[in-house]
Sequence to fold (335 residues):
Amino acid sequence: MTASAGSGAADPRRLLLVAPTHQLAAAAAEAGFHIVTVADTAGFTDEELRTHLRDTVLTHRVDRLVACGEAGTHPAVLETAEELGVSPNPASAARLLADAAEVRNLLNRSGPPWQSLVLPDGPEDRPSLCDVVYGVETLTVEGMHRVTGIVEFRFGEGSPSGRGEPDAGSGPGADRVPGADSTIPQGAGLALHTFPAPITGPEEAEIRALATGLLDLVGYEFGYAFTRIARTEQGPCVIDAVPRQASWPASRLIELTTGLVAERELVRALSGKPLKAALPVGFAAAVPLLDPPGAPGQMKAPADVRESRDGYVLLTALTPVELAARTAAVLGCPA
Fold:
C-alpha cells in the first residue's frame, strides 16, 4: 500500500483498489490517482477484512473504493464500502447481480414481461436451445449503461450442454455471416467466440435492451458487467450476469477489434471523462484448438494467428468472409 496520507477529509484523487489487475492499477496511477491496494482478500476473515478496509479508507483518506474480480461480489467488501460512503455502486446491486438464482427470482417477481425472459434453472425444464449464447459486456456510469461489445459463443459436439450441437455456421441465422462454412467442427467442451456477434440489427437491439434492462432492475450504478443471454426458439433468455468485465478471450476480442482497453475505460469513468465509442473495426474470433491426444500442453498454433492461449487461438480479419476462411483453416489444422 501507499504511505499513510494522514487523517482528514477524503481526497477525490485517492482510490482504493481491492484485488485489482496490474493493468488497472497501472492505468489508474497513470491517470493521476493516488492508489492504495488490497491485493488479495483471501487471508482475512470477514470481520478482519471489514476492519482492514475501514482502517485503510480512513487512514489514506480514500474517496472511492473499487472492488475487482471476485472481490466485487464479496459482501464484506461491498457493504463496508457502502457504509463508508466510498462505493460507486449499491452493495445490494453488485451482490444480487452475481447470484444467478437471485437474478432468476427477481425476474420472476417482476411481472410477465420479465418472467418470459428467464432461462429455467432445471435443464429438463429449459426450452430448446439453438446452442448459441451471447455475452454482453457493459460499462455503467451513474446508472447509464454503455454496451462495449456483444460476443457470440457457439458450442459444438461435446460441449458442456451435453447435447449434440450444430457446427459453426449452421442453425438459425447462419446466413447472417457471409462466407460462414457449415462444415466447421467445434472443439469439444469449448465455444467458438465471434466478435462482433453475427446478428441482425433488430436482434442486437433486443439483446442490448435485455442486458441493460436487467442492470436497471438490480439498480446497478457503476462498473463493468457481463451478461449471458441464450438464444432459444422462444427468443432470448437471461442465463446469468457478473459484475465485472468479460473474461479472456472475449475481453481480448473486444480490445483487438475496438481498440478499447477495459482498464483504461474504467479509469476514464472514474475520472469523469467521456468514454470512447465502442466501434468495431474488423472482425475477430477465438477458436478452440485441442491438444493432441495423449500430449497435453503440446498444442501448436498454426500460422496467421494473433495469439494463442488456454486452448484458443485468436484470429482477426477485415471481413466476415475472411474470418470464416481463417477459422476453417485453423480448425482443419492438425494439432
User: Anything to note?
Assistant: The CA atoms of residues 198 and 232 lie 16 Å apart. Confidence is low (pLDDT under 50) at residues 1-7, 157-188, 292-296. The longest strand covers residues 129-141.
